[in-house]
Amino acid sequence: MPLLRHALLFPTLPSPLPTPALPKNAPLSSPHRYSTRGFPSSRGLLRCSLVSVSPDMPPTKGESRGTRPSPAEVSRTIMELSSRGTLSTLTPDGWPIGIGARFVVDARGAPALCLNQPDSLIAIGGRSSFHVQFEQSRSRTPQCTLLGSLSKPDDELLLKTGVWMTSSEYINADPDPIRNFAEKIVDEMNLQHAEDVRRLCNVYVDSGFEVTDAKMIWVDRLGFDLYICSGEGVFAARIPFPREVEDEKGVKSSFN
């Protein structure tokens, strides 16, 4: 399965994932400047806070639809792969508070939090946010913030200190089907097939400069993201697959 003959190259990735803008001659593993802007899901109140591209990104060819997962799908994937987050809410007397919490998600993606905080510290039914981040290949950390309200479950089998945080913004989205082995594939490509990663950059990324090093950051059902190093600096690129893949075999065959 050949790759598309066109890839997308940007100083920062135009994705719903937060991507660092890297300085020239910086090592691939140490990005240290972030440019963030909210990504609204509607004209109303934000329900999922994500990050878009850096405002100083130079003009590039437009990215066609279907080359990367949607913001809702990215959010579902982050929530499925993570187990810890930060709950931010107001105490009954109006003070803001942030609490670290472990969580699981139900079939709709709504997180169930297990908290050891007394009811007097958390205002049940009040507006809250739950922030979750997931490290990808030790090089990028996509983040998702869900906005909603807190409510106690009625099930007596649940812990008394358990609190449900509900959200309906991404119920209809599915987590990425290759999420459970994406990191394995990325590590394998970077450690065992580094030359192939550079070859893919030279063939499918129309950069206009010589690629001196490349590192795969993440892979999903629609393509993969990379950091590319050259004498011009460090760039981020997206190479889409020619068609959607559903399993590990499909991903690996797309690299050939």
Automatic annotation (TrEMBL):
One of its GO terms (cellular component) is chloroplast. Residues 183-253 form the DUF2470 domain. Residues 15-39, 52-74 are annotated as: Disordered. Pfam families: DUF2470. It comes from the Eukaryota. Gene3D superfamilies: Electron Transport, Fmn-binding Protein, Chain A, PNP-oxidase-like. This is Glutamyl-tRNA reductase-binding protein, chloroplastic. It comes from Elaeis guineensis var. tenera (Oil palm).
